[in-house]
Amino acid sequence: MKTINKYNPYDQMLAVLDSAAEKLGYNLNDYVALRYPERVLTVAVPVEMDDGSLNVFTGYRIQHSSSRGPCKGGIRFHPSVDLNEVKALAAWMTWKCAVVNIPYGGAKGGIEVDPSKLSPRELNRLTRRYTAAILPILGPERDIPAPDVNTDARVMGWIMDTYSMFKGFAVPGVVTGKPIEIGGSLGRKEATGRGVSIVTEAIAFRAGLPIQKAKIAVQGFGNVGGTTAKIFYEKGYTVAAVSDVDSGLYNEKGLNIAAIAKYAEANNTLKGYSEKGSVEISNEDLLKLDVDILVPAAMENQLTAENANGIKAKIIVEGANGPTTTEADAILNEKGVILVPDILANAGGVIVSYFEWVQNLQAIFWDEHEIYSMLKRIMIKAFDEVYALACEKDISLRISAYMVALDRVVKAKKIRGIFP
Ligand code: NAD
Prior knowledge:
- It is globular and about 55 Å long.
- Helix 3 crosses helix 14, helix 4 (120-134) crosses helix 5 (153-167) and helix 6 packs across helix 7.
- The chain has two domains: 9-173, Leucine Dehydrogenase, chain A, domain 1 (Rossmann fold, 3-Layer(aba) Sandwich); 191-340, NAD(P)-binding Rossmann-like Domain (Rossmann fold), CATH 3.40.50.720.
- It is an alpha/beta fold.
- The protein has a seven-stranded mixed β-sheet.
- The protein has helices at residues 9-23, 28-31, 83-99, 120-134, 153-167, 188-206, 223-234, 257-267, 283-287, 326-335, 342-345, 348-362, 368-393, 397-416, and strands at residues 39-48, 54-65, 71-78, 105-112, 143-147, 215-219, 238-243, 248-250, 279-281, 293-296, 315-317, 338-340.
- It has 14 helices and twelve strands.
- Nicotinamide-adenine-dinucleotide binds next to helix 7.
């Protein structure tokens, strides 16, 4: 097989997939189709800017697998979006939905754009034109987008409206992470962070680390990192460091996350915030702090061969997708660091997206208590399964999670058979 490009996330995904397949005793024929995305759509998205000029953005929607159900996955607006990133993110969605055993395949979308440079009207036109361009492959029974980096409930509302306008009637189930007023689910916004906090508590317990005494660092202060830090803080845990793309903060006694969240909401950045005892640190400093638990919750390729040796945390919980390169993964494993992989750790978002879709299809709504207790049940069940297999086979939690996931997808594929 070809050499792995250490920063190509799709190659990294394939490397883990091949290891999991080998451990399961599969030969290539059993899973080779899953090394390729089922459908790749690249679209040109022309947008009239507020000054009358025309900009053409490149967008993608990639469906990796539909073997276990409709494709599911977020949409990212970011300047570094490219084909390989979206392919990897789509495949990770397949494994994520399978490891927590919800009836979806995997997909992902993205536009190569810096949305902070667009006005709200330009962002609206960009979203709607992109939705129109990928519309033939969307639908509640086909492919259901959700938020990801730099997209939120407002953007999901525009997607829902655009799709519905083409159909001629309201179709809330075409997208999840929508505003509550148009069919969004209670708890969806906080779901990924809540899931991260559930598995962090579970792994700390298994590792014999009293979480009340642990020092925690969280990289990224957006939907996932910000919510995770807030939940830890509300539970009385010590969040010693947080960061966003502009800046990082450290206070060994614990930061006031409620005050930081307020500041970030008002200023759209952590830059400029300070409190008694806090110092400003870089993102790179944050990763190497003397903490017990590290939660990378920003972007891919943050933990690399260059910094993995300097990481002091005993436990890493991957809030982001693909934050650890294959090389860093091997180094951390060798060092005895316990790592809960992305496909398990950040699955809370897609689980509550699944609840939102079910509520939309049935036109009934559940309360927050029902949603959180079902979320916890599914996360813990998946965690226990992955943990037990890792102990039984003496393998990393990442390989174990991929084995659980791959086995489910391969079984579904075999039962369905290859068409024609
Ligand atoms: P977001 O846009 O809400 O937040 C991203 C955060 O990361 C921001 O605070 C940003 O400043 C920071 N950031 C960006 N680039 C950075 C860098 N180079 N270094 C440090 N910080 C940086 O995005 P999000 O929805 O929180 O997503 C974060 C990660 O979690 C992504 O990998 C995403 O795919 C994954 N994820 C998100 C969800 C979800 O429900 N939103 C679900 C599962 C996984």
